[in-house]
């Protein structure tokens, strides 16, 4: 069968032969035992409903074995034989160009060069899934190949509920992930519902088909590191950034350190992913012996090298040894997947990677105790460095949250706040999000590098034009992004699809998108998919990350993210998504995303202006109501540019009136 025929058949009527478990693939760890005997039967029963009854006898035992062996039913037998990658849009079967673009984005999320655990359909973060099993993938792709522009596909946590009649102005796909009742949002609830096959953790851009490989986080991390050094009034050259994690998202850190121009040490316990990142060029060197690491770092600092070093081992050992050696760390952070601490997101000291995975599956209570013990040591070592002048920030991965739950010394004197700021609270929020700058991204559906280069040139030209008249308050953001986009080709950031990201405000996003649409209309480039990370101005309500610089008491509310997705859906988005649990953990955040296909039409021009304006200014409005000065400036500027925009502004209060 051709690729197109395989897509169109969906779940095959004749079962393919079982596939061997490929040991050279980076697999998800075994999930812990959490279902009762009756619930295991329910999980198998749920999985079998995708198949004709004639296959149930064979598959029932197979699925039960998968559940026992891996803690989940992935349906490995149904994994396609074709190579998984983002093909040019013309190679996908279908009646809707928008649907074809979505198929391209799904396959990009599952590309072996992009996905963290591709056979388990997990893109990044240890559990950020596109689908729960391969039957869902096959059925979804079939539906998309059949869809017309008068239908909408409804997705329930990876499960394609079906195609429903709609209209051309409606989204082609509406996605929810993990949207469980709030009282059932504890980590063990996720484990249980996911094992039953009824819910999944979509992370942010994994379950919304908008991941573009590590490039997305490289840019955000570069901006963060640059502004971190500005905050401590140091240039990156000859100074040290220490962090950990080389997974799907965190693997971007060493590349960002190189672009910023510092010495980066990034620790990782997983040998396979460490060597993958090295082969991809995201890190320069791998060191496995801490006795070799110390002199290598000292030499790099002395020579002011721009170098990224992966330490294959536990980051706690790095913090502790650098303290003993009095090796000064300028910037420190952590980007392990602590939203998922008990299932492979963070590993304890004193165990090898394989020993940890064994302990995680067979003695989860002891594993949890060892992780919490390590978190206490981790925090204690950081505290020693910050006492010597290190600037440490939480990277929004729930490090401080889980460390506090472990009893680590991370709380401020008031007993309410953490002693270290979130990077959004201290850097990205006041410097970028409040002014409307966030991770605008695009994908060239032709798959041609020359199309991407053309879009880079278009974006660069527009940003340079805008910077000539931009107010002083946003000049730094403009210049950082001009520098980024000009160096994008040279930094070889593409992994998977021909994609790009930069931080832009509403005006920048609209002007760049419209220029793309005009270039498509002229036949200069193929169709373009617009999107963003959910980690943005208005897509996400996350009290310890995206909304951590909201101080009016509303940071625990999620109105903004919900309104964002509702508004995007009727203003022209091609697909929309809303998730529980991206980035910082299940039950800790609500986040929404979108995708929009530009086809060169007048309709696309109308939609992009309407939707992108709302997508950004919804968040600026909320931030201005929280009395954030940058956001008040930004929303007033937006109202001047668009007379139909009328936003309620806060009145400042004389603080002396509150002394009672």
UniProtKB/TrEMBL annotation:
Give residue ranges for domain Urocanase N-terminal: 84-210
Query: What does the record give as its pathway?
Result: Amino-acid degradation; L-histidine degradation into L-glutamate; N-formimidoyl-L-glutamate from L-histidine: step 2/3
GO BP terms, alphabetized: L-histidine catabolic process to glutamate and formamide; L-histidine catabolic process to glutamate and formate
The record lists the catalysed reaction(s) as:
4-imidazolone-5-propanoate = trans-urocanate + H2O
State if NAD is listed as a keyword. Answer: yes
- List the cofactors: NAD(+)
According to the UniProt record, what class of enzyme is this? lyase
Chain coiled-coil ranges: none
Cellular location(s): Cytoplasm
Q: Does the keyword NAD apply?
A: yes
Instruction: State where NAD(+) binds.
Output: 125-126, 203, 268, 395, 583
Cellular component (GO) terms are: cytoplasm
Describe the task this protein carries out.
Catalyzes the conversion of urocanate to 4-imidazolone-5-propionate.
Give the protein's recorded name.
Answer: Urocanate hydratase
Tell me the organism: Flavobacterium lindanitolerans
Gene name on record?
hutU
């Amino acid at each position: 069968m051709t690729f197109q025929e395989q897509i169109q058949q969906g779940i095959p009527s004749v079962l393919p032969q079982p596939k061997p478990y490929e040991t050279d693939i980076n697999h998800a760890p075994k999930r812990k035992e959490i279902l009762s005997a009756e619930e295991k039967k329910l999980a198998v029963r749920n999985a079998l409903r995708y198949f004709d009854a004639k296959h149930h006898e064979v598959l029932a035992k197979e699925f039960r074995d998968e559940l026992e062996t891996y803690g989940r039913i992935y349906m490995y037998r149904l994994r396609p034989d074709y190579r998984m990658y983002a093909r040019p849009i013309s190679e996908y079967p279908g009646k809707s160009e928008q649907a074809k673009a979505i198929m391209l984005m799904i396959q990009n999320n599952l590309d072996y060069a992009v996905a963290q655990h591709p056979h388990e359909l997990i893109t990044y973060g240890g559990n950020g899934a596109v689908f729960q099993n391969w039957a869902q993938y096959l059925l979804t792709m079939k539906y998309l190949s059949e869809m017309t522009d008068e239908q909408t596909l409804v997705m329930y946590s990876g499960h394609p509920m079906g195609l429903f009649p709609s209209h051309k102005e409606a989204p082609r796909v509406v996605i929810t992930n993990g949207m469980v009742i709030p009282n059932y949002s504890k980590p063990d609830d996720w484990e249980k519902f996911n094992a039953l096959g009824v819910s999944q953790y979509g992370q942010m851009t994994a379950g919304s088909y908008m991941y573009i490989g590590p490039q997305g986080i490289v840019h955000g991390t570069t901006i963060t590191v640059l502004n971190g050094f500005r905050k401590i009034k140091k240039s990156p050259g000859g100074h040290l950034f220490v962090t950990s994690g080389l997974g799907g998202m965190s693997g971007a850190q060493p590349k960002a350190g190189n672009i910023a121009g510092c010495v980066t040490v990034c620790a990782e316990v997983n040998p396979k992913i460490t060597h993958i990142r090295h082969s991809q060029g995201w890190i320069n060197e791998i060191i496995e012996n801490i006795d070799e690491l110390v002199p290598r770092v000292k030499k790099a600092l002395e020579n002011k090298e721009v170098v990224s070093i992966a330490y294959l081992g536990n980051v706690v050992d790095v913090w502790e040894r650098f303290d003993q050696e009095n090796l000064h760390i300028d910037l420190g952070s952590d980007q392990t997947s602590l939203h998922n601490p008990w299932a492979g997101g963070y590993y304890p000291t004193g165990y090898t990677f394989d020993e940890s995975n064994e302990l995680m599956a067979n003695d989860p209570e002891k594993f949890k105790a060892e992780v919490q013990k390590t978190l206490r040591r981790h925090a204690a070592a950081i505290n020693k460095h910050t006492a010597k002048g290190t600037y440490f920030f939480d990277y929004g991965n729930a490090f401080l949250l889980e460390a506090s739950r472990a009893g680590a010394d991370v709380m401020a004197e008031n007993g309410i706040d953490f002693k270290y700021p979130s990077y959004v609270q201290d850097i990205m929020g006041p410097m970028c999000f409040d002014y409307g700058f966030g991770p605008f991204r695009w994908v060239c559906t032709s798959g041609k590098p020359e199309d991407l280069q053309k879009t880079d040139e278009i974006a660069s030209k527009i940003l340079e034009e805008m910077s000539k008249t931009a107010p002083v308050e946003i000049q730094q953001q403009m210049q950082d992004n001009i520098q980024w986009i000009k160096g994008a080709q040279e930094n070889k950031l593409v992994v998977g699809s021909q994609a790009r990201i930069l931080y832009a405000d509403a005006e920048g996003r609209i002007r760049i998108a419209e220029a793309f649409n005009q270039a498509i209309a002229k036949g200069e480039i193929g169709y373009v998919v617009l999107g963003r990370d959910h980690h943005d101005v208005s897509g996400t309500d996350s009290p310890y990350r995206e909304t951590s610089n909201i101080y009016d008491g509303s940071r625990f509310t999620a109105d903004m993210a919900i309104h964002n997705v509702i508004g995007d859906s009727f203003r022209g988005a091609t697909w929309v998504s809303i998730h529980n649990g991206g980035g910082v953990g299940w039950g800790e955040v609500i986040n929404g995303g979108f995708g929009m296909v530009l086809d060169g039409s007048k309709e696309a021009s109308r939609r992009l202006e309407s939707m992108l304006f709302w997508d950004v200014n919804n968040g600026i409005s909320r931030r201005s109501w929280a009395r954030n000065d940058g956001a008040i400036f930004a929303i007033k500027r937006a109202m001047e540019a668009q007379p139909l925009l009328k936003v309620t502004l806060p009145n400042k209060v004389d603080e002396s009136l509150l002394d009672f």
